[in-house]
Amino acid sequence: MWFAEEGSIANLDDIFISLVLGWVALRGIRESKWVTNGLVDIVAMACIGFALFRDGLLPPIFSRIHPGWGTPVLMTALTVGSVVLLSGLVTIEILAEMVSIGTLFAFDVVYFAYGYRKSRLARKEREEALK
Description:
The protein has 131 residues and is an all-alpha fold. The chain has helices at 12-19, 23-54, 73-89, 92-97, 101-130. The chain starts with 11 loop residues before the first helix and ends with a helix.
């Protein structure tokens, strides 16, 4: 039975395990969420980086698009590289504590892109003032 004593409320995982699947299949379903979330974050970060380039907030090196797939090459490579390094060097417990690292990384990219754009605009204004 999936409840310890009569009248107690059963956990949804307990019901699911006892009625439908074994613990191995449930564990696989739980772990697949981590993989899909990681893949979605990689794609989203690459798209955000390309949008920042289009707005003039990142250098032109980020504009290279893969001819076959149509994805931003450098931004995707940087994102995948950082995800691989983090997942390879840090334990799952520490990664679980760093839930908002993707958001912080996105804020950092926007922060540095804004600084780059601001310095470039200031340089253009100085050049135009000297003409």
